[in-house]
């Protein structure tokens, strides 16, 4: 087996990726014009017994009201399937008593708050829920202005405890127990309208042969795998990047991946 025409291959790769980027079946950013809470990465796959992290990101946060004020505090309520995932945790000795602490790292969204901030967290390993939040401190005019823009809210570490799949769901309503919700609020206790984009933990194989790394998304990683095997030949079906199974990795295989570029799979 050998590789040939590497420079030409990457020119084709980049051109096809740019042409096909519009084929994504799901936008992984918040709706335009709305503040958004986004779980990143959007799709995760990992083995049982291992851990992974997701970030909670706020996007497009604009001040509201008159005079306009930004976010003074937030509450995030997450839910997941505890048979598949659970919060990773660490333990410490608190005056002779072992205490379990969820692994949540508070982000820097309120790092520039004039008088600082305070945070809290609550979690349930039984029900697969976590609730955490942060609020600015202070009553001066500069405190009331709050925060806006884009920023890092928190990082949550999960452990894979069983096979299957689960949504990492930002809950935004009181429609069912435990009647907890997610919100962004101003100094005046006004709730700010928001959009959410949840994450999906996947242990179910992707249905597409073009998802070469089986991460649930057709992207540059898959195109790059075809590029690295460009010109290789072998028995049909022997090389995963030989998608049409004609015995060689060529433009037909690259086109097959590029056609599905941006497609995402979740159960």
Structure overview:
The chain is α+β, with helices and mostly antiparallel strands. The protein has 2 domains: 6-24 and 206-259, no CATH class; 36-193, Immunoglobulin-like (Sandwich), CATH 2.60.40. The protein has helices at 6-20, 141-144, 220-228, 251-259, and strands spanning 36-40, 43-44, 51-61, 73-79, 85-87, 89-94, 97-102, 104-106, 117-124, 129-136, 149-160, 166-170, 183-185, 195-197, 199-201. Strands 2, 4, 9, 10, 12, 13 and 15 form a 7-stranded mixed sheet that branches. Strands 1, 3, 5, 8, 11 and 14 form a 6-stranded mixed sheet that branches. A hairpin with a 2-residue loop joins strand 6 (89-94) and strand 7. The longest helix is centred in the N-terminal third of the chain and has 15 residues, at 6-20. The chain is elongated.
């Amino acid at each position: 087996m050998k590789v040939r025409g590497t420079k030409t291959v990457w020119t084709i790769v980049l051109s096809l990726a740019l042409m096909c980027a519009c084929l994504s079946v799901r936008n992984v950013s918040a709706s335009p014009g709305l503040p958004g809470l986004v779980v990143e990465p959007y799709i995760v796959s990992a083995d049982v017994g291992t851990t992974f992290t997701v970030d909670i990101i706020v996007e497009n946060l604009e001040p509201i009201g008159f005079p306009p004020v930004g976010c003074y505090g937030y509450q995030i309520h997450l839910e997941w399937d505890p048979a598949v995932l659970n919060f990773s945790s660490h333990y410490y000795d608190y005056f002779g008593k072992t205490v379990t602490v969820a692994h949540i790292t508070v982000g820097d969204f309120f790092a520039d708050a004039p008088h600082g901030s305070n945070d809290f967290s609550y979690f349930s390993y039984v029900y697969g829920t976590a609730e955490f939040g942060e609020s600015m401190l202070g009553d001066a005019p500069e405190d009331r202005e709050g925060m806006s823009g884009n920023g890092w809210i928190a990082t949550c570490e999960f452990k894979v405890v069983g096979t299957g799949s689960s949504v990492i769901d930002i809950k935004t309503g009181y429609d069912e127990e435990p009647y907890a919700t997610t919100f962004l609020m101003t100094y005046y206790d006004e709730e700010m309208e928001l959009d959410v984009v949840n994450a999906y933990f996947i242990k179910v194989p992707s249905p597409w042969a073009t998802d070469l790394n089986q991460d649930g998304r057709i992207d540059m990683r898959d195109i790059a795998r075809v590029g690295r095997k460009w010109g290789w030949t072998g028995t049909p079906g022997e090389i995963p990047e030989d998608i049409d199974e004609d015995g060689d990795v060529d433009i037909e295989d690259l086109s097959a991946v590029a056609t599905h570029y941006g497609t995402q799979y979740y159960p």
